[in-house]
Each structure stands twice: as structure tokens, then as C-alpha cells.
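User: I'm preparing a small set of examples for a lab meeting where we compare how different chains pack in three dimensions. I only have the primary sequence for this one, and I'd like the structure in C-alpha cell form so I can line it up with the others. Please keep the answer compact; I'll paste it straight into my notes.
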Amino acid sequence: MACSGRHEIGAVSHIEAVTHTETDILIVGAGGAGMYAALSAANAGAERVLLVDKSLVGRGGATVMAQMTVAAALGEECLDDWTAHLEDTLAAGRGLCDENLAAVLCEDSPARIREMGEWRVGWARRENGRIAQVTAPGHSRPRCCYVDFLNTGPAVAATLRRRLGRVEAIRRVSNLTVTDPVTADGEVVGAVALDAVSGEPVTIAAKAVVIAAGGLTRIFQRNSASANMGGDGYALALTAGAELVDMEFVQFFPIGHLAPRLVGMDPIMWDPFRYKLGGRLLDGNGREFLPGYGSDETSGYTTPRDLATYAITKEVAAGRGSPHGGVYLSFTHVPRAALEAAFGPVIEKLAQNGIDLTRMPIEVAPIAHYHMGGIAVGEHMASRVPGLFAAGEAAGGANGANRLSGNAIPEALVFGEHAGRCAAAYVASRSRNWQPPAAAPAVERVRSLAAGRNGQVSAAELLEELRTLMWVEVGPFRDAAGLGRALARLSELRAGLDEVAIAPGHCFNPAVADWFELRASLVAAEAVARAAAARCESRGAHQREDYPATDPAWMFSQRVTMAADGTIAVSSSR
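Assistant: Understood. Below is the C-alpha cell output for the 574-residue chain.
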């Protein structure tokens, strides 16, 4: 190979020096779910675990970006029990949660949170030494813990990275994009990947594969996603023969930052302020509007995210929005001393951006934040394809039509633990079934793309078009006409993948990676749009302007599958 560069961490051979590697368990995606799955698999006896990420292991994905709280029925502030947490989760899911998966999430969350405490994640504590817990929207009692209101996710990710470094059985490889699953005799036997440094294909033989590659919110124009949240895991699962579930349910975070310009801070940072200080949402005329949508916040921040998104979008559509197309979030009623006591360092950073919360409101608007759907799995996190597991946001079912605030990080930890442990049990008595001919088409595709292709438009340009299309036609509010336009254009884009322009070159060629991201994002986008078009009602995060009511007859989930020719279909799971 003409390029060189070290990707692996630890005393292992350089991935760029080989084109084939073998492992017991391949884990795709190294955020919170992937890292925990690797630790769990090794702890359960897997002798060789390969943890790969298209960016940097432990520094990409959603977990490291999460700022806020983590839900677990610890009972530190008041009496609590996992069954009460489950009740709140099911209520948020609007009747569509897989109750068995949701029960696993809620029952196991306390153990995972206390374990992270033992690993010195640094949960905030009261003066009596108890873990501090606060109430978040949708919760019936204070059960959400945190490290601090803006660094919970980074602390969780850093803690897991430290644990990984102590486990010899786990190999870590960054900058490796898994492009295709490899199946043989009806089971997953490994994968083909693109080495971003060399531009060469890498084949990986594995007894089991865990997909922990996160969600798909990057396919929307306004999003809070990291650069590797374009739906890769969903596309891999469909290609392997797995089903997806609840794909129409995309959670739009209602108060993503809009204006003034904010540099070096997360666009969803305002939720902790609302939790703690009761920021007021105001229309363009300075009037509180949530009461008009049935939400009374006189006693605190209690409006569920789907309702807040609906209210803000409707206010803007009615011409009552702020200058940049959102609404105002105001803390001018809060004394400066209270702001500084709660968020001292953050107040200083805001001041550097010219924002003084005691004198001015900021503008906020909905932003794509989380995906409730994903790979259909059972309680052991196994898909219908033997050897294929899923964890974290890549797994669907537990959240139903709307995720309860604070459940994302527990979902990564709990489902990561289950996926790793169950994958280790699966591979314990199995031998590898690697068959090189099954990987040949995917290997040749990587090599041919690096050779370059003539075309009128690049993958990067088409990705921008896709994100605009999804925001406009498949965003927070949908109708049949818009969904039809989206599906027609998505079909054209998928059909034209072979005509996309790619500059030639192997080493560090982003055009090749963009092509694979475009291919995966188009599959994920079509799965969302087709499921949304099929669901003729409004429920949770799925809102149809032409079907505004929630219909009891639609209290069931939908499954998405892909045929051998790439056709995507939606069916009922009733």
C-alpha cells in the first residue's frame, strides 16, 4: 500500500499492513454502546473482540456529545423503583414500546449507573454523599443523575475509554468504515470495511457482529448529530437481512440553538438551563404560548419534547416566530446571581459569544436529535439474522413513538452490556464460517471507487441535497404530498449512485467515504420516509398534518425490510 498510518491502539499489528483480520466479535461503532459491548463481551469470555469506528474510538458518536442527564431509578432523592421508571417510559412511547425491551432498560439502568460510579465517572453528589437526581420532562419523580449539566456524556465516554485500555482482549481500530456485512448460509460471518488512511478494503471474519453505529439524525439539515450518525448501522442491518422497526419516529429536540451565533458550544445546551431555572418560551411578540397547546409550566419545565416541537413549529408557521425563524427562550426574569451559581463557567463562555442572559433572550428552534427506531431485536439484542446483534441507538423498539428524556445513555450502557454478553455466549461454541467469495463484490466496490468516476455532481453535494429534502419533506410535520415528493427523489438518488462523481485516489480520499455515507444515508432516509408515509395518524414524534389525530387502530409498530434487489418495503408487526 502507498499510504501508511497507525490506527490500532495497543500491541497489535497495523491494520494497514494486512487486508484480512479475524476476530470472535466485531463491534461496529465505538460510542458508549459499542465500548460497553466490547467490555461486556470480553468480561463474558470472548477472547478476541475488535472494536472499530469510522472516526476515533471513544470520541465519535452521540455519547461523547451528550450534555444532560441520565435516568435510573436509584431512589437517591425519594422512593423510586424501576417499575415506576418503566411506567414513565411506556407513557412517553405512546403505546408502541416493546415492553420487554423497555423493562430490560429500566430494570438494569441502576446497576449500570452504580457501576459507572465505581469506575469513577464522577456523578454529582449531595452533601450527604448520595448521588444527586433531578426531575426531567416526562418523569414522575427526580431520577435523573448527571456529572454536571454540560459534561455528562464526555465523562461517560472518558470513563469507558479508560476501562478499554485495561482489557487485552479488545483491539481498537479508528478510521475504519464498515461498508458491507458479509453473510453466508443465512448468517453473518464478518464484514468488509474501508481504511480511510490507505483507501484500501479490509475484510474481517467474525463469529458475531454487533452494530452500535448510532442513529440517523445527520440525514436532516438541522441536527445535533456527530459526523458519523448518517444511518450506517441501519443500512448494514437491512443489507444483511435484518428488520428495522419504528423507523418513522425521529425525535426533534425543540430548543436547538438558532441565534445569535454560538461558537464552540452544543446547539442543544439550553435544556439544562430550562430544567434548573425555568426559562420561558416566548413567541415573537414576547408572549408565553405553551398554555395554548395544553401545557402549563407554572410549576416548572414539564412539556414533553414532541409537544414543545409541535407548539414552536406552529407558532412560526402562524407568523408569530422570532426573526430567524424560531421562538425566544428567555431567562431575563432570573437574577444574575442565580445564573452564575448554577452555570458559572457557561455564563462566561456565553459572554464571549456576546450573549447576556440577564438582558436578552436567545432564539431556538427544533433540531433533529434522536431516532427512536432501529434494528429489530429481542431481549438478547439479537436480530433475526444469526450472529447479528445491535445496541444503543442502533437498536429499535424500547422507545416506541417518543423517547423519555434521560433514557439515551442508559440505553447505550444497558443494551451494550446485553449485546456484548449475549454475543459472547453465541460465539462460545461456534467456529468461523468465513467465505471469501461472499466478500468479493464489496471488496471490488471499494477498489473501483478509489479509481475514480466521472460525473456531474459529487456525493458531498448530494448529501446536502438529501439533508435539505428530509428536513423540508420528512421533518417534524409531514403530509402525503411531501412524503411522496421525498420518496420520488430518494428513488432517483439511489438509482443514480453509479453516476456520482468521485475524484481518483486511495490515500485520505474523502470522496470515497462520502459515497458510502450517501449510499447508507439514502437507505436510512427511505426507510424513514416509507414508514412515515404508511402510518396514517399522528403519534409521538411522528406528526401528520393530513392525519392530525392519534388513531387507536394504529397502536402497532411497523417493520422495514430490504429485498435482494434493494427494494425497501414496510409491513405491520401486528
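A couple of notes for your slides: The chain has a mean pLDDT of 91. The two ends are 52 Å apart (CA to CA).

User: Perfect, thanks.
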